[in-house]
Amino acid sequence: MGRGTLRIYLGAAPGVGKTYAMLSEAHRRVERGTDCVVAFVNHHGRPRTEALLHGLEQVRRSEITNGPDRSTGSGAAPSAGTGPDRSTGSEAPHSTGTGSPHSTGTGSADSARSGAAPSTGAGPAHSARSEMDVDAVLERAPAVALVDELAHTNLPGARNAKRWQDVEELLRAGIDVISTVNIQHLESLGDVVESITGVRQQETVPDEVVRRADQIELVDMSPQALRRRLAHGNICRPDELDAALSNYFRPGNLTALRELALLWTADRADEYLQKYRGEHGIRTTWQARERIVVGLTGGPEGRTLIRRASRMAAKGSGSEILAVYIARSDGLTAASPKELAVQRTLVEDVGGTFHHVIGDDVPAALLEFARGVNATQIVLGSSRRKTWQYIYGPGVGATVARESGPDLDVHIVTHGEVAKGRGLPIARGARLGRARIISGWLVGVVGPVLLSLLLRSLESGPGLANDVLLFLFLTVAAALLGGLRPALASAAVGSMLLNYWFTPPTHTLTVQDPENFVAIVIFFAVAVAVSSVVDLAARRTHQAARLRAESEILSFLAGSVLRGETALDALLERVRETFAMESVALLERTSDVDPWTCAGSVGPAPVARPDDADVDMPVGDNMALALSGRVLPAEDRRVLGAFAAQAAVVLDRQRLVWEAEQARRLAEGNRIRTALLAAVSHDLRTPLAGIKAAVSSLRSDDVAWSEEDEAELLAGIEDGADRLDHLVGNLLDMSRLQTGTVTPLIREIDLDEVVPMALGGVPEGSVELDIPETLPMVAVDPGLLERVVANVVENAVKYGPAGERIAVAASALGERVELRVTDRGRGVPDEAKERIFEPFQRYGDAPRGAGVGLGLAVSRGFAEAMGGTLDAEDTPGGGLTMVLTLTAAPGRPRGEAALPAEATS
C-alpha cells in the first residue's frame, strides 16, 4: 500500500477559518462519494463550525485518564502563571498556563490580562481529556481522515507525543489526511513571531513536516475582517473580547503574521515551481519573483556590486540576491581567497546567498546558473580591462548582455576599478584559452596565405624587404595570440610563401640571388627568436603569478593560525573554492586497519575513502584531505599540503577546546559536589538536629511542659523547617542554574509591585524603601526578581549592624533601572567582591545567620537570566551596596497594561 497524501490548510492567525475550510472540503468529498471521516476536530464552541460537523462520521476518541491534568484545551489561552508550560493546545497563539483548574479551555480573567489570544469556548466536555485514537482510525481505514491542529501536543499517556506524529502513522498506512496549522506554530518562525507579538509559541511543528505536504492551501483574511469576526463573537466569548483586541489581535500583529504566512507559502510555491521546471526541462525565465544574480570575479569591485544589488532588491518585497563566482577548472582559481571570503560575508549580511560554480566559459556558465535559478536580473561590473586588452574579445559583460535574451535584464555597474587593468591573473597566469590558441593558428597559418594573395593582386608590390616585414608581423601576432607553436608554424609557412611567390625565380622553391636567400634565413631566424621570447615571457609570467597566488594563500593560512580561527567547515570551504572542487572532506582513522571516518566535509556527496577521491593529500599516517571534482596538476599539491596541515591543526584545536571545556565542567562539578557534601554534613544537619531535639522533648512523658515552653519548642521546630526549606530551595535553584534550565517568564511590571512582596522574610522596620512613582516599568520575570531581591535584602540584614536599617532605593538611568540595596556593615574588600557571588562561598563569619553560601550566587544567576546584572560596590562611609541593574521596558510608561508572557520559567 502506498503512502497517503497530506493536505494542509495553513492559517495566518487563529480564527481565519482553517477548520471551517477543512470541514467544507470534507462535505464536498462526501458528496462525491469519498469515504471521509473526522479523526479529530475541535469546534471550540463556534456555532458555524460545529454545524459543519453534522453529517460527517466521527471516529471515537481515546480518553486519557492517567497522569496529572496537563491540558489547557486546544483553543484556550490559560492563565499566565510562573510555573512550567503544560499546555497542549495549538489553536491559541500561546500558552503559559500552570495547569490550574481554570485553565481547561473555558477561559478566565487571567487569560485576558495576559494578553493572549482568548479561549474559544469550552467545546465538547470531553475535549480537555481526550485525544485522537490512532488505532481506531487505522481500524476504520477510511480513504480520507480529518485531523485538526497539526501542532497539538498530546496528553501524557497518548500514543505519540505530538499530533503530527499521529498523522505520520496514518499516512504510512495509506490514509489521506487533511489537517490545519497556523503560521505561528512553524518551528523556524518561533523567534520571529515572538519579536512581533511578544508571545513565545509553546506549540510547534517542524517545518519539514509541513513542507512535505502534497498540498498547502493558505487560508487568509485581512486584519480588519478578522477583527470584525472577533467583535461579532465568532471567535471568543464577549468577556474576553477587549483583551483580545488590544493584545494579540492588534492590527499590526495580524498584518505581520499575514505577511509571514504569504511569504512562507510563496517560498513553498517556488520550491514546487523549481521542481516542475526541472522535470519538464524548462530553461526560459518565468518572472514570478525578482531574483538578482551578482557576477563576482574576486576583484575589489565585488563589494560595490553586492551593495548595488542589495539596493535593487530593497525596492521590491520578496526579492532574492544570489552572488555567484565562476571558477575555471585549470588550477588555482583566479581570485583572492581573502577577498572572496569578505564578499561572501557581505552577501550573507545583506540576506543573500553565495554560490561557487566551475566553468571554463564564464559568460555561458553565468547565464546557465541564472536561468537555472529562474533569475530575472544580472548585475555585472564594468570591465577592468584596458583599451588594448579588448583585442582578446568583447568581455564577459558584453557577451552576457548579448546572449541573455529578452527574459534577463543585465545591469552593468560602474566602479572605481574600471579600465585600471586586470593585472596578472592570480592563478591562470599566462595560460591561453582555447579561443586564443585557435586564433593564433589562424593568424599564423591562414594569415600568410591571405597576405600572399593580397600582395599578388597588387600590380606593383611593396618590395621584398617590406614583404618580409609584413610576414614577420603576422608571426609576432601569432606568437602573442597562440604561443610558440603557431608562431613557428607561421615562420615556416611565411618562409615558404616568400620563397615561392616573391623571390626570383618565382613559382619555385629555389633562390637565385644570395641576398634574397639571406633575407629569408634572417626572416625565419627572427621569427623563431621572437616566438621564443614571447613564449618565455609567458612562462615567466605564469610562474610569477603562481608564486604570487601561493604566497597570498600561505599568508592567509598563516594569518588564520595567528588569529586562532577554529572553524573547520570554513577552512574546507576555502579549499573547495581555491581549487574549484565539487567537495572536500577531512578523513581520519585510528589505525591502518580501521575504517575511515569523516571529521568534516563541504560540498555535495563527499567521498568516504581517500581511494575514491580525485585528489588526496595525506596528513600524517591516519588522516587525509580528500577532494573530488577533477585531478589537480602536480604544481598545486604544495599549496594543498599547506591546507591539509592547517585542517589537521584546526581539528586538533577544536577537540582540545572541547576537552578543555569538559575538563572545566568536571572540575566545577567536583568542586560543587565537595562543597555540597560539606554543606550537607553541617548546615543541613544543624536545623535537623534542632528539630529532632524539640520533637523528642515534646514527646517525652517525663516532663510536663508549660504552654510557654511548648510554644517555644514549636517555634524552634518551625524556624528549623524554614531554614531547611530555604537551604533546599537554594540548592535546587543552583542546580537549575548549573544545568541551564532556568528560562525566565519576561513581562513588563512596576518595581513597586514586586519589591514589597520580597521583604516578607525580613524583620519589620529593618528596611527603608524608596521607589519613585515616576520610575519606568521593567522587563523581568516577577517571580525571579522577587527571589533576587529577597536574597539580597536578607543578606544585607544578616551582615548589617543591629538596629541599622537597610536602604532599598531605585532609579532610572537611560534604558536601565537600578535597584540599590545598601547596608552599613563592615563591607567587603575589592579582591573578595567577586568571590561572594560564587557558590558555597561566605565572606567572614555570620554569627546571626546560617546557610550554605548560595543566596548571592543564585541571585546573580537569576539576574543574568533576566538580562540584568548584580554587582557589589562599597557604600560611602562604610558598608556594602548591591546594585541590581534591570532592563527598562522600551517606551512603556507606568500604568499601561503589561504585555503577555514571552517564556516560562
From TrEMBL:
Catalyzed reaction equations: ATP + protein L-histidine = ADP + protein N-phospho-L-histidine
Enzyme Commission number(s): 2.7.13.3
Keyword Kinase set for record: yes
Residue ranges of the region described as Disordered: 63-131
Gene3D superfamilies: 1.10.287.130, Backbone structure of the membrane domain of e. Coli histidine kinase receptor kdpd, Histidine kinase-like ATPase, C-terminal domain, HUPs, P-loop containing nucleotide triphosphate hydrolases
UniProt subcellular location: Cell membrane; Membrane
PANTHER family (alphabetical): SENSOR PROTEIN KDPD (PTHR45569:SF1)
Organism: Streptomyces stephensoniae
Transmembrane portions of the chain: 438-456, 468-497, 517-538
UniProt topology in membrane: Multi-pass membrane protein
Protein name: histidine kinase
Upper taxonomic lineage: Bacteria, Bacillati, Actinomycetota, Actinomycetes, Kitasatosporales
Keywords: ATP-binding, Kinase, Membrane, Nucleotide-binding, Phosphoprotein, Transferase, Transmembrane, Transmembrane helix, Two-component regulatory system
